[in-house]
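TOKENISED FOLD:
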Amino acid sequence: MILPEASRTVSLKELKESIYIVLMVIVAIFFIFYEVTESMVSTWIRSETYAHGFLIFPFSLYMIWNKRATLSGLAHYPEFKWLIVLGILGFGWLLASLASVLVVKQLALIFMIPVAICAIMGFRFTWAIAFPLAYLFFAVPVGESLIPPLIDFTANFTVSALQLTGVPVYREGNFFSIPSGNWSVVEACSGLRYLIASVTLGTLYAYLTYLSWVKRLIFIIFSAIVPIIANGLRAYLIVMTGHLSDMTLAVGVDHLIYGWVFWFRDVIAVLDGFILAGRWAGCTVQKSGIDNCEFIGGQRFTKVKVACSLFSHRFTNNLAYLWQVFRRSETRKRSC
């Protein structure tokens, strides 16, 4: 019995040494391609849309740390064939550098991390942490190409909602006029910031909460759909607030304030529904020995019911708020 225990001690020691080597290699990659690393960090600092990039690596490390029991029992050994893939990525980075395509260089940089881990620890070990490593791609500041379609959707949603509520609208592109004033949907109204933040956190929440990949995928899809619809509802509520108040509210500095308030009320209503439902979840133990919470089959639709009820409650509050604005504007007219 003494020999296996000693053998295991050596194995754990080798695992720690291999992890130190992996960390040094990752640091070396960032140092060698320091211009790309600096471009990513500067974007995180400069743009509020991509400020979440500072949290991606800590989140990824946290997910890997949660799998430490599984990783400690996996065999790890170098697979030098992955050095060929690493060389291909380096060549791709060179081509992207010659073509001045920054986003490709940044993607190649992030892709080098899991490939380097494969070369040092082996594919089986790397596959066990595939999701945390894939999560690193959220650190790449991409998504600006989504701004035009998001603007179009927000404009279409707002105009359609105004027409459904009986407000006449004349539209030209992203500009539209209603009896109380003129409005336009600009880049800041696209909702890209909300979308990226929601998908980033939704993906993390889905991975930590659910065991089923189907449920994880469904939740991630919801985390992408909800902020888009909520942003359209936010734009509509802002326009209606200005319309019912005779353009005295939600047209100046408070335009941004109302926008954030409306968006948080709608999105958090749905996401909180899933979180509250998760408190009634049972716990199952995987073969790895790590406890993970999974929703009980008898409560399959509980989270949907809670989410819908909360969303209806928040939406009713929004309508009540608009009615109060309308009543105040009517009172002001009579007093004048």
